[in-house]
Amino acid sequence: AAAGQAPAPEFKQDIARVGVVGTGTMASGIVQVFAQAGYDVVFVGRSQEKLDGVYGYITKNLDRAIAKGRGTEDEKANLLGRLTGSTEREALGDVDIVVEAIAEDLEVKLELFGDLDRIAKPGAILATTTSSLPVTKLGEATGRPESVIGMHFFNPAPVMKLVEVITTDATAEDVAETTRALTANVGKIAVSAGDRSGFIVNLLLFPYLNDAIKLHETGVEMTVIDAAVKETAGFPMGPFELLDVVGNDVSLAIQKELHGEFGEPGFAPAATLEAKVAAGELGRKTGKGFHDYS
Ligand code: CAA
């Protein structure tokens, strides 16, 4: 390694088969990322319809790439051939790492981690892509907290380069290093972060998004705020466009978690964010959020 640079992380254990739990936007993108890097991926969802949704998401992305002259139908067929969808968690029994990407709800994740502890083979890494919940607690739901780690991808996972790697006091150093090596191997950049709510990026990003909604509530047009941010700060999207990509349900869950953790009065979720979620206007995935996509 060059002077001042940390040496590249090394695999301390073999990772050949990857498991993903979940079928939403993040899970779908994460399945694509691993399959694109050549890994066999087993992904688990609650119904065949949800599994089909993952295939649909990936097929759409690959078709778009092919239309742009990158990739071929053969490569697409090979990539899809590396995927195995299942409605049974038992299908995760022989994977080397499981990446959990289900609802941002602690109780739901705790139940899953208890079950993964029962199902996953000894030594398998159990990773969560939670964006705000304590990884330590998920580790404590298992009999192997040394194998539990955070691997936080960003939306859209096939595009965004960053992965926050979150270690707890219990995470084994070999597990952390293998996770960083895996992150590099799928073409992403790992940044190590401690197990505090919001890690690095969301602690900065979501209060800003929440403040944008509160600013709009005082009467400033959303399009004006979006345009101002894009034109001055060089952000690729304005806050309302980004909220619609992330999903208002996800944003509300994160903002509530940050508010609960830090107790900052300004972190209280904006009333309009709560209202959007109550109305089912979750963003692009439902065709309407802050902006309309129908
Ligand atoms: N899946 C796969 N690929 C996608 C995609 C998707 N959902 N959306 C866009 N892309 C690809 C396009 O195919 C295109 O690829 P090429 O350049 O190779 O052809 C590329 O991304 C650029 O897309 P577009 O030209 O259509 O549009 P764009 O220039 O506006 O880029 C964007 C789209 C990458 C999403 C960009 O707008 C962007 O970076 N937005 C900000 C995203 C962001 O900040 N994400 C973090 C959210 S916070 C989070 O995720 C934390 C959490 O815990 C919830």
From TrEMBL:
Coiled coil: none
Entry keyword set: Oxidoreductase
Highest taxon of source: Bacteria
Domain 3-hydroxyacyl-CoA dehydrogenase C-terminal residue range list: 198-293
Domain 3-hydroxyacyl-CoA dehydrogenase NAD binding, first and last residues per copy: 18-195
Residues spanning the membrane: none
Keyword Zinc-finger: no
Pathway(s) annotated for this protein in UniProt: Lipid metabolism; butanoate metabolism
Protein name from the UniProt record: 3-hydroxyacyl-CoA dehydrogenase NAD-binding domain-containing protein
Species of the source: Nocardioides vastitatis
Residues of the full protein shown: 96 to 389 of 389
